[in-house]
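Ex. 9. Protein: Sodium:dicarboxylate symporter.
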Amino acid sequence: MWQKLTPYHDAIILLAALLLGSVLGLVWPTQALALQPIGQIFLNLLFMIIVPLVAISVTASIARMTDLKRLGRILALIMAVSIMMAAIPAVGITLLALVFDPAQGVQLTLNEAVDTGTGSMDFVNLLTTNDFAGLLSKSNILALIIMSVLTGIAIGQSGTDGERVSGMLASLNTVVMKLVSILMKLAPLGLGCYFAATMASQDVSLLGTFARAIGLFFLATLVYLIVGSSFYAWLGGGRQGVRIFWRHAITPAATALGTSSSLATLPVNLRAAQKMGIDDATAEICLPLLVNLNKGGAAMITALKIVFIYSLLGLAFTPEVFALTILIAVLSAFVIGGVPGGAFLGEIFIVTTLGLPLETIPILVVLGAVTDAASTVVNVVHDLNATQIIERIMGGTTKTEIESPGQ
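Predicted structure tokens for Sodium:dicarboxylate symporter:
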């Protein structure tokens, strides 16, 4: 029994800490408020590492990918398909959440004042900064990501010198990831204390909003898996593609649900692609890259988090905010989703980019932790869909479906 729960070990501990924190905050609010400094220290530690984490991880990742120069067309297709398969579910669940408001009029009371303003966004300052020093601020994460991507491309195109820099970045990335893993050991304590302080001033009805938001996500995920996957399979191979896809996608989906890891499911996905008759060379190039780039499930939950927190805070969800929500969701799937430790990075990315109070971070973490397995299923299954689509666009001829013994 416990072995089956091993993939969810960290999530279970974190959720238990948050649950304990919520009970403490609702039952003993005075004592809970005294724990806020502990939570604040943990958040500050995360903020201190976020800039080098994003800069090094994204740059190193892009630098490695651009080594595939001769396969530039396939790489471009992978990126285009990944963006499409992140934007579609992000738009869909955003519209769904706006119609069926999961907050249902419940208002979140925070110590930090929230500027409702007009909701207008300055996209120039969101995407760029007029000084290099500005890239060293967590408030300019979007600009940092853009510059990191461009730097990674430049490194990949710099020949031997670029290879040396790429190797150094890979080593530095290993060190940064180890630092992140050390900080994550403090997550249950830090976020539990912060959540306790946040819940100390809230009404019990706030807990019901989590159930509605999570229920909405699971329903949307189920519908999107059935309808969206069938549509993508049709794009990749017509009616025959749909039949072949559903015949072989169940095993990867079950593996993703059991491991809650796209990377752990990669061998199963490669085997499924082989059985589906997808060209081996195409699958072996596409699937390892899609594991990091194609994360529609991550885009869905990111978009839902933003709508949910805006509703809880009573903020106007303007067209500008809608556009920024989709942009953040796509970036979360396309870049941040591939960064180890990206779960917490995503919450910080949302809060800092939108200028939301820090007290909302534990709330976003709850939604992310509970929905992680379902998000992973979407990510993994649609990697197969994306490979089908890419092979068809490349003009490849799908081989005859390979039958397993007993089929």
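Check your answer against this statement. Residues 205-248 form the longest helix (44 residues).
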